[in-house]
Specification:
The protein is an all-alpha fold and 412 residues long. The protein folds into 2 domains: 130 residues, no CATH class; 274 residues, no CATH class. The chain has 17 helices and no strands. Helix 3 packs antiparallel against helix 4, helix 11 runs parallel beside helix 17 and helix 12 runs antiparallel to helix 17. The longest helix is centred in the middle third of the chain and has 28 residues. The chain starts with a helix and ends with a helix.
Length: 412
């Protein structure tokens, strides 16, 4: 036996011992309701499967098959006997995984075998937390997660790559992948907001809501500020926080879609982000108000209709941006981006990131900032028209300061 074979057998035996140690430590291997086995049984199973993996590399492959089949039969017989009183099959399933991972180790695949052993022991140890997590998942979150999986694993592979149409701008698979990316960002923010719960601070609610839609947060908080006695100052700070997170969201999208654009964007948007962050921090020190649940928190951003509408909007904006770039150049692109920014920043970000050549990154960054500026003015107008009292003052100071910083950097 060479050193590699010895290492494989050791990994197989130690991996089985780790699983058996957890099974015995958790009480599943002793007492009147003991399951399949403890540290000794699992160590022997790991060693046996490791030996089978080593034998499979040479002329004794039939012997390896017999050993694995006998071990698997032992596990199945054990479950058949134990299931008469208890249908839990965790130990038996763990034993089968040990057989598979130990066979890999014996055959020389030490890295994947070690990873499987570590992941399995972690899964077994974290039983209580996993059960608590499952208990917290409600119908809306489960349905949204399944929808996302279906859109990513079923719809995406079926779409053609393209390109099609005028300007070769129709690329169905790439477009749907971008829809999934932006929908996934919104979905993560929605999950984080729900996980924080209705007892979170108003400012925290705004920050998390900004991952989903800063425009929706600004409008909702402006409406919430209208009743007498509403925490208007905190609501205004939450709206500013949502718009600050929006800048981080756009930058993150550029990091994925167009890294050169992402490196240029902070020069223009960085001061505005600092203004928003300072306003939020100052407001945080002054007040903390629990936030009430809103309708937006109960509506998942992962809806098929919403995804299709997003795909259509993305495609239209992409056509417009590409056509303007070819026909009029960067000057008209700024005006077009400012108009598109009033409707959807995600579509503008995708279009500019996809259609910008390496030599025009600065012009694309200016156009994107113009869209962010117009979107900020839209939210500022919404806050001043719909909001009341201290909400108006807070939003005017925060959003107005951010807009002024964007204008200053564009002029520079």
């Amino acid at each position: 036996m060479d050193p590699d074979a010895i290492s494989g057998l050791l990994v197989a035996a130690l991996g089985g011992a780790a699983v058996g140690l957890e099974r015995q430590w958790s009480g599943h291997a002793t007492g009147p309701h003991a399951r399949f086995g403890g540290i000794r049984t699992f160590t022997l199973l790991g060693a046996l499967a490791g030996l089978a993996g080593w034998l499979s590399l040479g002329p004794l492959r039939p012997a390896a098959i017999v050993l694995l089949a006998a071990a698997a039969a032992l596990v199945l017989v054990s479950y058949a006997a134990a299931s008469r009183t208890d249908i839990d099959a965790t130990s038996e399933a763990a034993a089968l995984v040990v057989l598979g991972a130990a066979t890999l180790a014996g055959a020389g695949y030490l890295a994947p075998a070690s990873a499987i052993f570590a992941a399995m022991v972690l899964l077994l140890v974290e039983k209580t937390r996993l059960h608590a997590l499952v208990a917290r998942i409600d119908d809306a979150a489960l349905r949204a997660s399944v929808r996302f999986a279906a859109m990513a694993c079923i719809v995406l592979p079926l779409l053609p790559s393209g390109p099609y149409g005028p300007l070769d701008a129709i690329r169905p698979r790439e477009l749907w992948a971008m829809v999934l990316f932006f929908s996934g960002l919104s979905f993560l923010g929605w999950l984080a907001r729900r996980a924080a719960g209705p007892g979170q601070g108003t400012i925290v609610s705004g920050l998390l809501g900004g991952v989903v839609s800063s425009t929706s947060v600004t409008l909702q908080f402006a409406r919430d500020s209208r009743p007498a006695g509403a925490p208007r100052f905190a609501l205004g700070a939450g709206a500013v926080g949502a718009c600050t997170v929006m800048l981080a969201r756009v930058t993150l999208a550029c990091v994925v879609l167009n890294p050169p654009l992402a490196r240029t964007l902070p020069f223009y948007a960085g001061p505005a982000f600092l203004v928003g962050a300072i306003v939020v921090l100052l407001a945080w020190k002054r007040t903390w108000v629990p936030a009430a649940a809103t309708e937006e928190e109960g509506t998942s951003p992962l809806q098929l209709r919403s995804a299709l509408q997003m795909a259509g909007l993305f495609q239209l904006v992409l056509f417009a941006i590409v056509a303007v770039q070819l026909r009029f150049g960067s000057t008209a692109l700024v005006a077009t981006s400012a108009f598109v920014g009033l409707t959807d920043l995600d579509a503008l970000t995708l279009s500019l990131a996809r259609s910008t050549p390496a030599g025009e990154v600065a012009a694309a960054a200016v156009a994107l900032v113009a869209g962010i500026l117009s979107n900020t003015f839209l939210k500022l107008t919404t806050a001043l028209v719909v909001g009341r009292g201290a909400f108006r003052a807070m939003a005017a100071a925060g959003l107005g300061g951010m807009a002024a910083a964007l204008v200053a950097m564009l002029l520079l």
